[in-house]
């Protein structure tokens, strides 16, 4: 029952997004971005829905589900599986690393009991690593659901995590 | 308390002494005393300034003014004008070209401390980035007005070519020439793309412009569109910059509302539309053909080149792709003229460059200075020295794909030409400063992990090579490497540099190769002695009993 309602929502959402961004191939990424933002991830059921609306055989536009999947699976900000309620993205690029990033990621791993890429069983946390997010002047840096934390030390980690329900 | 605000250095090498340096030194002490400045100014001697002709030489810090040759008769003027009143005396400044490396960083400096020269970041932090009125108040849209009403498209391109502006995305290709390629290529429509997918680790100069002065990019893209006869532009902002995207979107709306974007701009026949596009997280999309693929709704995988985007770009049409910083230079060039622009920087690398200073320095952030500044100057003056008084070990220039410059090369001036000659990449202008506590193996591991993650997987040398290099370096960092691994890494790196499809694979081994070139002993210590000299790598405790007894 719940699943059905969800599917209906998804169809409505895809309809709305295709109307907004247009039924062309170059609209695929903006549409996927919106789904990812609205739902927290991209359900695989969305992919054929998008394909169906963009394919216009009369105009010579042929698209396979795999075309949509290939875009959805390429970009790091898209997730094809559900993530936790709070998503931590830790910058693991060189500038943050040089300034003590390793101690911070080790503290995050210890505090959450997660390895990078994992989601906790209670679906509260996902711990992801990301490439440079351009806030290097306050490194080491991580973000939680879009909140930015800079100049982080291992000691500050528990206090920051405690702010999230 | 005695606070020294200035320092006077007098050269006392043999030729200087023969020409009366001793008297000049005494004259400085006397004059400084007469002006009552003895508590504020220190006078000291330096031995060999490395100049042959112009001695004795006197250098005044912190302005780094170099006076030469100085006679006793000049001393009064220098003390009164420079030390007492604070004005450098241009008529007494010396010609600087043959200094020894220790003080070579002042070369070509003609006196004053290199202050920041803001062209790209001119308005950043000064104007309200969400108000077009503010932008117009600060000379905004003068350049577009001049271009549309007084110049033919060809004249706009000629002006940009004359300015000598080179692309600031990393490759340094002349912008004017790129525009003229697209303008002369048959085909319609044509497109202008602003590459705002700034993902090189440690680089955030474009973010500063997008967030702080978004209208300048909109104006510059419109000028580019006029110059190459395009009516559509795309701006590809990386997904990690939501604020920059909002500001660009707002700038587009406001410009349209004021008739400065859209149909019949300034009441002329020229129409131009800009579409913002948000990326979704992929380093490779900074590569222009990958960016175009991504704009078309596909995986961001680079195309084979040629054909270049100038002939076969977005939707297969001729396309100009310019970096944010490059575009930000366009309105000032058209407003003030190419001659004005050429006076900034060095003759072959004109204009300014925005650098981001990061790592183990006291001050981190972005600076904009004329081309040709040296790393030593950047660290000492803008970075306010090394953090905790540590020693500089190396600087990685140009982001993770850039070169590793050991401390001994820090006097090479930072411009495209000098860097190319020194085998160093200026790249995106990032300077990652690392002190003596940095382990080169650990640094290489982090850099290679980045490329392993970011390789798009299209071509084999890059897909497999980045993984192999990462695994080998990891092995070495754990104390399990062999000397053969070093040769193996050189071999893999050579293959990647030569046959990878795009810049990612070609430059991924750059830092590693430099580390093997300049810090080989340190890498070998991990392998032969099972020791990480910097104490960073997790090598298991060295067990003496494991040594076979003879």
Low-confidence segments of chain B, given as residue ranges, are 96-114
Helix content of chain A: 40-55%
Per DSSP E runs of 2 or more residues, the count of β-strands of chain A stands at: 5
The CATH homologous superfamily of the largest domain in chain A corresponds to Glutaredoxin
Subunit arrangement of the protein: heterodimer
Largest sheet of chain B: 5 strands, mixed
Provide mean pLDDT of chain B, rounded. 87
Assign the CATH architecture of the largest domain in chain A: 3-Layer(aba) Sandwich
CATH superfamily of the largest domain in chain B: NADH-ubiquinone oxidoreductase 51kDa subunit
Task: Give the C-alpha Rg of chain A.
Answer: 19 Å
Quantity of strands of chain B, as a count: 15
Query: SS-based structural class of chain B?
Result: alpha/beta
Termini Cα gap of chain A: 29 Å
Low-confidence stretches of chain A: none
What strand line-up does the widest sheet of chain B have?
Answer: 10-9-15-12-13
Q: How would you classify the helix and strand content of chain A by structural class?
A: alpha+beta
CA-based shape of chain B: flat
**Level-1 CATH class name of the largest domain in chain B:** Alpha Beta
User: What is the fold-level CATH name, i.e. the topology of the largest domain in chain B?
Assistant: Rossmann fold
Count of discrete domains of chain A: 2
Q: How many DSSP H or I helices of chain A?
A: 6
């Amino acid at each position: 029952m719940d699943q059905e309602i969800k599917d209906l929502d998804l169809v409505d959402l895809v309809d709305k997004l295709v109307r907004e961004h247009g039924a062309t191939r170059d609209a695929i990424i903006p549409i996927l971005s919106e789904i990812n933002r609205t739902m927290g991830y991209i359900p695989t059921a969305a992919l054929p829905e998008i394909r169906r609306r963009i394919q216009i055989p009369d105009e010579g536009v042929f698209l396979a589900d795999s075309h949509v999947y290939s875009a959805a699976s390429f970009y790091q900000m898209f997730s094809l599986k559900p993530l936790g309620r709070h998503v931590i993205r830790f910058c693991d690029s060189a500038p943050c690393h040089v300034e003590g990033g390793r101690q911070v990621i080790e503290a995050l791993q210890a505090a959450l009991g997660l390895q990078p890429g994992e989601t906790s069983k209670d679906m509260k946390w996902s711990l992801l690593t990301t490439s440079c997010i351009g806030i290097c002047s306050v490194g080491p840096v991580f973000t939680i659901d879009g909140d930015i934390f800079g100049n982080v030390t291992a000691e500050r980690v528990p206090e920051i995590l405690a702010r999230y329900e | 308390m005695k606070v020294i605000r200035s320092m006077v250095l007098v050269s006392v090498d043999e030729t200087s002494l023969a020409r009366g340096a001793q008297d000049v030194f005494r004259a400085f002490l006397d004059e400084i005393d007469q002006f009552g400045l003895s508590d504020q100014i220190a006078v000291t001697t330096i031995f060999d300034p490395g100049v042959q002709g112009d001695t004795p030489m006197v250098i005044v810090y912190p302005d780094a003014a170099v006076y030469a040759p100085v006679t006793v008769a000049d001393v009064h003027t220098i003390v009164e004008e420079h030390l007492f009143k604070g004005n450098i005396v241009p008529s007494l400044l010396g010609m600087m070209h043959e200094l020894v490396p220790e003080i070579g960083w002042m070369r070509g400096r003609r006196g004053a401390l290199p202050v920041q020269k803001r062209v790209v970041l001119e308005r950043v932090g000064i104007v309200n980035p969400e108000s077009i009125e503010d932008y117009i108040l600060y000379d905004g849209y003068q350049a577009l007005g001049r271009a549309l009403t007084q110049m033919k498209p060809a004249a706009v391109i000629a002006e940009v070519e004359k300015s000598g502006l080179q692309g600031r995305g990393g490759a340094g290709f002349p912008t004017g020439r790129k525009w003229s390629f697209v303008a002369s290529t048959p085909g319609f429509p044509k497109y202008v793309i602003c590459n705002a997918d700034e993902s090189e680790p440690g680089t955030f100069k474009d973010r500063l412009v997008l967030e702080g002065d978004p209208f300048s990019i909109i104006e510059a893209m419109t000028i580019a569109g006029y110059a190459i006869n395009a009516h559509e532009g795309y701006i590809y902002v990386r997904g990690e910059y939501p604020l920059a995207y909002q500001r660009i979107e707002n700038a587009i709306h406001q410009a349209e509302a004021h008739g400065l974007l859209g149909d019949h701009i300034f009441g002329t026949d020229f129409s131009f539309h800009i579409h913002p596009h948000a990326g979704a997280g992929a380093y490779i999309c900074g590569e222009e053909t990958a960016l175009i693929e991504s704009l078309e709704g596909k995986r961001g995988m680079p195309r084979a080149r040629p054909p270049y985007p100038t002939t076969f770009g977005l939707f297969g049409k001729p396309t100009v792709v310019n970096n944010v910083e490059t575009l930000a230079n366009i309105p000032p060039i058209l407003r003030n003229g190419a001659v004005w622009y050429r006076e900034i920087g060095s003759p072959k690398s004109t204009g300014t460059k925005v650098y981001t200073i990061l790592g183990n320095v006291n001050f981190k952030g972005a600076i904009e200075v004329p081309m040709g500044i040296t790393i030593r100057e950047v660290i000492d003056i803008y970075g306010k020295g090394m953090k905790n008084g540590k020693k500089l070990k190396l600087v990685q220039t140009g982001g993770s794909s850039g070169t590793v410059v050991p401390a001994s090369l820090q006097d090479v001036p930072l411009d495209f030409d000098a860097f190319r000659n020194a085998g160093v990449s200026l790249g995106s202008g990032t300077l990652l400063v690392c002190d003596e506590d940095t382990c080169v193996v650990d640094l290489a591991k982090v850099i290679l992990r980045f490329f392993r993650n970011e390789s798009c997987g299209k071509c084999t040398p890059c897909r497999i090579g980045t993984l192999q290099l990462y695994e080998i370096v990891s092995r070495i960092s754990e104390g399990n490497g062999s000397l053969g691994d070093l040769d193996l890494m050189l071999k893999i790196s050579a293959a990647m540099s030569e046959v990878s499809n795009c810049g990612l694979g070609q430059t991924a081994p750059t830092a590693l190769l430099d580390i093997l070139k300049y810090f080989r002993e340190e890498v070998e210590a991990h392998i032969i002695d099972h020791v990480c000299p910097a104490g960073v790598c997790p090598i298991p405790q060295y067990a003496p009993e494991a040594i076979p007894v003879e």
